[in-house]
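User: I'm putting together a teaching handout on how multi-component assemblies are represented. Below are the sequence lines for each component of a complex, exactly as they appear in our records. Could you produce the 3D structure of the whole assembly as structure tokens, so the students can see both representations side by side? Please keep the chain order the same as the input.
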Amino acid sequence: MARYLAGRILQTVFILWAVASIAFFLTLLSGDPATLMIGEHWTAEQVAAFREYMGFDRPLFVQYLEYLGRIIQGDFGVSVRQQVPVTQLILERFPATLQLTLAALSIILMVAIPVGVISAVHRNSLTDRLAMGGALVAQSVPTFWLGILLILVFGVWLRWLPISGRGSAANLILPAITLATFSTARIARLVRASMLDVLSADYIRTARAKGLSPGRVHYGHALRNALIPVVTLLGIEFGSLLGGALVTETVFSYPGIGRLTIQAIQARDLPLVQGVITFGAMLFVLANLLVDLSYSYLDPRIRNA
Amino acid sequence: MRSLILALAFTCLAGCSVETDLTVGNSTDISTLDPFGMFSRVEISLGDHLFESLTFLSRDMEIVPRLATRWERLPGDTTWTFHLRGGVRFHNGEPFSAEAAAFSLRRYLQRNAEGMMVGGASVAIPSSEITRVEAADSLTLHITTARPKALLPFYLSQMFMLAPGHYAGADDATRAENPVGTGPYTLTDRVRDSHVTLTRNPDYWGAPPAQERIVFRVIPEISSRLAELEIGTVHIIGDLPYDQAELLENASGVHVASVPGGRRVMIGISTQEGPLRDKRVRQALNHAIDFDAINEGLYGGRAERMGAVFNPPFRHPDLPPYSYDPAKARALLAEAGYPDGFELNSLDTPLGKWIQDFELAQTIASQLAEVGVTLRDGVRTYEWGNYRSKLLNHDLPALFMQASGGEFELLTEAADLTITSPSNFYGWEHPQYEALWSELQETLDADRRREIGLEMQEVVLEEAPWIFLYIQVDTYGVSDRIDWSPRMDEVIHLWDVNWTDGAS
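Assistant: Of course. Below is the structure of the complete assembly, with chains in the same order as your input.
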């Protein structure tokens, strides 16, 4: 187990280094960073002074090493446009994104698991067909379209809920539903498939033969085993949601990490772009690591493989 | 289910009562409240409520007094005297004085020399051009420039006056988050990427601002901005696409307000390249463009073809744009020795930088082909960052899309076409224009300056270093409940905006 753990952690560090490096070099691909940030009427001397101030005049390799040295200490530099440390900007947005992610995740759990189980247990019934048809639609609907539709119905026509911004719990409802819809459908389908797999297993037949009630069989024996792959998917989903929901946060003007990412790119704020990319990757990789570790805890065969 | 609906309805009572503060919905957030770092139109709009400058750009883009009441140049033309307004206080109670003004200007110059971005809009005054700033007495300020500088009052309209006691030792974070100026409003609350709330400055020296509180919200998505406008929680929205404007015109309680802005969109011509050296050829390219078709197809009929190239207040009042006349275009080409047309390398454009830029470039390429001017490599598109580098390095093909922002200042706009300017991407050099430019730099007489500006525009139109396209029309969605109309420089001022229904 210790070797497995050490290997996984090493792998994680390698991935983070790779992502940080890609972020560094990719952001330099979009042209000379100094010319992107200056005004149209600057003189050559002003451009040179600015380049020096930003450190763009030094060799690329030196800039890269210094960048790596800083991010190891959690310092992504200072946002060029906002003049605030990148780490502070990210941490400021993180609670908003965490809140939205947790709200979406609760919807996913509350809807996807019961729907998946009921569909599997009543396989090929009308309920199953309706549920899976609905899941297909939910998975196909583009997020921005769903968001705008919800705004029109609940914000403009019915005027029940606020359209945009962050503040009260009411502000969280529409974006959380929008964000959760795709994943809910995906996970409901996975729960159903996984349950069907488990329900045909020998130990379920044995449980039934013992005369256990259908409820005990389904929820006590089947669901627990069927949830192992679901845990993996949920973990990955959690990690990627934490990286910020670009479309949902934009449609609902929700000030989270996703919006910060878009702002950073639009303002060509290189340190901020590098920071949000690396931060998002870090959360994703860490969530994956935790899932893998918990997976090996849930299923001893993985640990020993 | 019924209880859920009731619960939702109840949440609404608590959470979505109609906002009564005057609110603007912007598509982008401000980056900072640091007076040294406010450049975008949104930032300047907000900054103008918190800070003031010595001079001010009026609605007609004329320089008018603000914290300076009047100014004059001393003999020798390099030193100016500014007489400042008395009895003005900063938000923190410090008095505004010539000392404070000198402090502010020196700060700008120092930051500029350090290579920091400084100054409003895209105009930055090189620090080397101001040699001395000095307070003669408490309300008189002397500014000395290296050379005679007619532009000084204009530059000063872009530089906010800062409270010395607050800004003298301020670190980056204080500057970015605690604005202290003399403006009609003070900062109440800012949540990044969400909103900024301002409250009336009770000690303001001028007419008391109309609204007690005003709010600038960030609503990036146009559908959400429109929805907020429709339900009355936002009263002004900008960046309204032309197709959405049509929808809005039919809605009740709101209207569309539009104004020709300062952004001029054109195709730059590399005038040192082959046939393009001949002005008849360049004129032919202009006559080949069917702008009415472009306008209907791409801009919902809201754009207007450009004739005079400078922005108000210096725009030539009667210079008709080139007409669509393919026969004349062919005749001009034949006269120049190209009866069968000719081939150019390409027409380059950024993708998604200006409204419908790619579609516009494609249409123009096909219209040029109709008079025999073809493109070997067709229309080539670039990501904006790379395109910008190409522009600044003058690494350009025969034809390239270009848009120039509005400075509303003759010298800055005229400079773009002088041969020494880094933003003359066209390699265009014309003796008469250069002569007018030299005269303009030294001329202080307002009437003569205006005349020079008119003559310059006549030369530019005749010589055609561009394929003249259009001046962008800025459209806004506005609630019928307020009496606001847009300015042509995209800056939004709210201090004199009232409710039309008598609300307070």
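A couple of points students might notice: Confidence is low (pLDDT under 50) at residues 1-19, 118-123 of chain B. Chain B touches chain A through 59 residues (CB under 8 Å).
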